[in-house]
Automatic annotation (TrEMBL):
<dbReference type="GO" id="GO:0005737">
    <property type="term" value="C:cytoplasm"/>
</dbReference>
<dbReference type="Pfam" id="PF14821">
    <property type="entry name" value="Thr_synth_N"/>
</dbReference>
<keyword id="KW-0663">Pyridoxal phosphate</keyword>
<dbReference type="InterPro" id="IPR004450">
    <property type="entry name" value="Thr_synthase-like"/>
</dbReference>
<dbReference type="InterPro" id="IPR031322">
    <property type="entry name" value="Shikimate/glucono_kinase"/>
</dbReference>
<protein>
    <submittedName>
        <fullName>Threonine synthase-like 1</fullName>
    </submittedName>
</protein>
<dbReference type="InterPro" id="IPR037158">
    <property type="entry name" value="Thr_synth_N_sf"/>
</dbReference>
<dbReference type="InterPro" id="IPR000634">
    <property type="entry name" value="Ser/Thr_deHydtase_PyrdxlP-BS"/>
</dbReference>
<comment type="pathway">
    <text>Amino-acid biosynthesis.</text>
</comment>
<dbReference type="Pfam" id="PF01202">
    <property type="entry name" value="SKI"/>
</dbReference>
<feature type="domain" description="Threonine synthase N-terminal">
    <location>
        <begin position="239"/>
        <end position="312"/>
    </location>
</feature>
<dbReference type="GO" id="GO:0008652">
    <property type="term" value="P:amino acid biosynthetic process"/>
</dbReference>
<comment type="similarity">
    <text>Belongs to the threonine synthase family.</text>
</comment>
<dbReference type="GO" id="GO:0030170">
    <property type="term" value="F:pyridoxal phosphate binding"/>
</dbReference>
<dbReference type="InterPro" id="IPR029144">
    <property type="entry name" value="Thr_synth_N"/>
</dbReference>
<dbReference type="InterPro" id="IPR000623">
    <property type="entry name" value="Shikimate_kinase/TSH1"/>
</dbReference>
<keyword id="KW-0028">Amino-acid biosynthesis</keyword>
Length: 737
């Protein structure tokens, strides 16, 4: 067995030496003593008996960074190359490689790891150690593996300057770039935390980032959530009332009726960290961003990678997942409709079911409730239908939608996505009633308690009131900006505007969050249809529902008057003043309106501008864009295009969120393009669109869903709370009992 060889002398601190040190420190001023003691205790408690294990490609700086980290923590530093392999083999690594060849070298290297043990040390692995499974499993038993993630182009530049042109595992005919890319799968398999390292970052800075990452990994207590209607974020919370990511995913809505938000806000990325993601794939960007938003105590990095790979691997028809396409002039489209149900909702709802299934306790069944204005329902049903059989047995889904408030194709799609554990219920009312009803059910403790006691079933939410729904949306807004940089449209740091068709405020809130995290978004343009309550609010600060009635439009997904996620944004700009948010929403509930203070309106207008689009202008935009470019906008994207044309100042690029595939709204598209008489049957409408060869193809997922037999069967109920509850209990009895 190879035991720890100290890289430098390790000063053992005994009880007597500790007492002596404390006595000397106490002679200092009290403040100085407190600061030094806190620094010493923090450093030593950080390591304990665990090792900090630095992993990454050759040229990542593991050895140099390891020495700096060890010096800061005053603990042993071990370089596997110098202190283990060469000592064990009694020859240099290069001589061993030449002696035994690539494959045998990896085996010999792994055997050396298996004989090695250490504790409380900083260990720098070789670039090829992670390729030996048994050796890495042995190392992880007593260590926190930190992945120094350096862009491949930077590594190649560093290796060139070091005159290294071949590395372990590189066979004849395989390029250095290819072997570096190949190795990434092994690094991703083993790490606990990742540190992004750009090209010009100093080793001292990387070392500090390593320490910060390890501290975060070891202290999940820092990443708690509060309600938008609770006290200010600085207020201490009782131990039993703390909410973590797993809790808010499961619970959905806060007990006081507010929405959960992270107590310490969202993580900030440096410009260098964002730039290191320019060459990355969409899945790689999602992994990096979500790792920083979800504590590994809730979802470990390896499990998160599995979830992201499942969500975006084969379910999206475009390899770029969320491609950015030039439309005209300074306008670009962020295409968010390449998922299985043809809308932007797929980005969250191909992922959230797997997150939910991982986070919920195994001892309880769950009924997931969702209200939809059109696209969410089918995305939720499809996403939860892709869970494994074990998870589907303990999770059921009920989708409420306005029976006469969605497009015919959207309704057929929701009905066609039904499964044994997933029902769609048409409600004889509008979306606002459906959404309000779900909130009332969640805050009715007597009823939720009854479901738990009588049926062993808890409730959860899949609407964007659930925090987990927002995180994947942050990813695609950040990725869109990085795509423009990657395409050499702009240099990193140049601003862009974004224009988003907005109803429930979730999508545009995600763009605002991306801006807070360091993406250079200048203005977020809120685009409304004729239900323009948000436009009026952003312009005047007055949110007024008095006398307003919901107007059915060609863009039903934004036919919303009560925008739930606006509450999260108001909580943010009000400096987490939950009392003020409670006051505003109580006034909205009781009096039908509220007004922002002048200072808050000024803050809001620094981020947001707004406009709205008539039905006529929506159809005209679809016709005009198709006539000039051959591209077909869906009705929601057309709303955003009209508003963008009016409000952009053309001093920077503008990214328009294309939130759905045009074929979901076939009647409006046929009318806009003046093609033919509109048939009532949704499948006939899609076939009619498909028959016009000049048009882009109809979305594959829609055709497959609408072809299913029996997709006209669904449940319909009156706008009555007791009726909704009755349908819920019927599903629970059928599925769980």
């Amino acid at each position: 067995m190879f035991h720890v060889v100290q890289y430098r002398p390790f000063r053992l601190i005994t009880r007597n030496s500790l007492s002596s040190m404390c006595l000397k420190l106490m002679l200092l001023r009290p403040v100085a003593f407190a600061q030094i003691w806190k620094s010493w205790f923090s450093s030593h408690s950080l390591v304990g008996n665990k090792n900090i294990i630095l992993m990454g490609p050759p040229g990542a700086g593991k050895t140099t960074v390891g020495r700096i980290v060890g010096h800061k923590l005053d603990c042993p530093v071990i370089d596997i190359d110098d202190d283990v392999l060469e000592t064990t083999w009694n020859m240099s690594v290069s001589e061993k490689l030449q002696d035994v060849g690539n494959e045998q070298f990896l085996e010999e290297e792994g055997k050396a790891l298996l004989k090695f043990s250490a504790s409380g040390s900083v260990i720098s692995l070789t670039g090829s150690n992670p390729m030996h499974s048994a050796g890495m499993q042995h190392m992880k038993k007593n260590g926190i593996v930190v992945y120094l993630d350096v862009p491949t182009t930077v590594i190649m530049s560093r290796l060139k300057s070091m005159k290294v042109d071949r590395i372990v595992g590189q066979s004849p005919g395989v390029s250095l770039k290819d072997i570096l890319q190949f190795r990434k799968q092994f690094y991703r398999r083993w790490y606990d935390v990742r540190v992004l390292c750009g090209g010009d970052i100093a080793a001292e800075v990387v070392a500090e980032k390593v320490l910060d990452a390890v501290k975060r990994y070891q202290d999940s207590e820092l990443e708690t959530f509060i309600s938008t209607r609770s006290g200010r974020s600085g207020r201490s919370m009782e131990e039993d009332s703390r909410k973590y990511f797993s809790d808010v995913v499961t619970e959905g809505l806060a007990p006081d009726g507010g929405l959960f938000v992270p107590q310490r806000g969202l993580p900030k990325f440096t410009a260098g960290e964002w730039q290191s993601l320019i060459e990355a794939t969409y899945i790689e960007r999602a992994q990096v961003i979500l790792e920083r938003c979800i504590h590994p105590a809730d979802i470990p990095a390896s499990k998160l990678a599995e979830i992201i790979g499942t969500a975006y691997g084969e379910n999206f028809t475009c390899s770029k997942i969320a491609p950015v396409r030039h439309l005209a002039g300074n306008q670009f489209l962020l295409e968010l409709f390449h998922g299985p149900t043809a809308s932007f909702k797929d980005f969250a709802l191909q992922m959230v079911p797997h997150i939910f299934a991982y986070c919920i306790p195994r001892s309880c069944n769950y009924l997931v409730l969702v209200a939809t204005s059109g696209d969410t329902g089918s995305a939720v049903l499809d996403g939860f239908s892709r869970l494994n059989d074990t998870d589907k047995q303990r999770i059921a889904v009920m989708n409420f939608f306005p029976e006469d408030g969605v497009s015919p194709i959207q309704k057929s799609q929701m009905i066609g996505c039904q499964k044994e554990n997933a029902w769609s219920v048409g409600v004889k009312s509008d979306f606002d009633f459906c959404q309000t009803a779900i909130k009332q059910i969640f805050t009715n403790s007597d009823y939720t308690g009854f479901l738990t006691v009588e049926y062993g079933t808890a409730l959860a939410a899949a609407n964007s009131i659930n925090w987990a729904r927002l995180l994947p949306q942050i990813v695609y807004h950040a990725s869109a900006y990085l795509e423009l940089v990657h395409q050499d449209i702009i240099p990193f740091g140049s601003p862009v505007d974004v224009c988003i068709p907005t109803g429930n405020f979730g999508n545009i809130l995600a763009a605002l969050y991306a801006k807070m995290m360091g993406i250079p978004i200048r203005k977020c343009i809120c685009a409304s249809n004729e239900n323009n309550v948000l436009t009026d609010f952003i312009r005047t600060g007055v949110y007024d529902l008095r006398g307003r009635k919901l107007i059915p439009t060609f863009s039903p997904a934004v036919d919303i008057l009560k925008s739930s996620n606006l509450e999260r944004y108001l909580h943010l700009i009000a400096n987490e003043d939950g009392q003020l948010v409670t006051q505003l929403y109580n006034q909205l509930e009781n009096q039908g309106h509220f007004q922002l203070q002048k200072d808050l309106l000024e803050k809001l207008q620094q981020d947001l501008v707004a406009g709205w689009c008539s039905e006529e202008d929506c159809l005209a935009a679809i016709h005009s864009v198709y006539s000039t470019t051959g591209y077909i906008l869906d009705t929601h994207t057309a709303v955003a295009k009209v508003v963008a044309d009016r409000l952009q100042d053309r001093t920077c690029p503008i990214i328009i969120s294309s939130t759905a595939h045009y074929s979901k709204f076939a009647p409006a598209i046929l009318r806009a393009l003046r093609i033919a008489e509109i048939k009532q049957n949704p499948l006939s409408q899609l076939h009619l669109l498909s028959s016009y060869s000049p048009l882009p193809p109809v979305h594959w997922g829609l055709l497959e869903t609408l072809k299913k037999k029996g997709n006209e069967d669904h449940r319909v109920c009156a706008a009555d709370m007791s009726m909704l509850m009755s349908h819920m209990e019927t599903l629970i009895q059928n599925h769980f009992m």
